[in-house]
Amino acid sequence: MFTKFNAIPELVTNQLFGHYVREIAMPAFQHENHYSIVEAGSLLPWLTEKLGGVQELFNRLEELGFDPVTCKWTPFGNGHSKGPPPKEYEILVKVIAEIDQKGVVIKNFLKGIVDFPHINSDGREVYLCWILGEEAVSHWHYLTDQFMDRVPIFPEPVDPPPALNR
Length: 166
Known about the structure:
The chain has helices at 37-42, 44-64, 87-101; strands at residues 3-4, 10-16, 19-25, 33-34, 66-67, 72-73, 105-108, 113-119, 125-131, 139-142, 151-152. It is of the alpha+beta class and 166 residues long. It has one domain. The strands form four sheets. The protein has a five-stranded antiparallel beta sheet with strand order 7-8-9-10-11. A two-stranded antiparallel sheet has the order 1-4. A two-stranded antiparallel ribbon has the order 2-3. Helix 2 (44-64) runs antiparallel to helix 3. The chain starts with a strand and ends in a 14-residue tail after the last strand.
């Protein structure tokens, strides 16, 4: 489904100032799995279902008085917790693990923002960016950028200049 690059560092022996030095060759990319635009788009129905479930679980946990981010009960009365995490938390963790196993990076659970690692035409590792509710994967950004920095994959069509009257 997705392209898998060898991200396991290899030991390299170099001669430095007459001495042999063992170095670890770092992987060229941060992510092991990379998606094409089509592959990322094919996951959208599945992701829509999963992320919708994540949002419902977050809301349910808040109703129960459990903070899924800190994995703690909201203090009540004497400040003590109510015991182990609820079953909804275990379900939430499993759903997030399913998404993570596919190599999809969840950036915001509640808004449904995810990134798909991608290798662009220049050979650079970037993210294809999608937010729950969008019909297609249509934006990207650099690994160091955020959702607000994303740009369209395909530039917007430009209206032709008006015809010159002579």
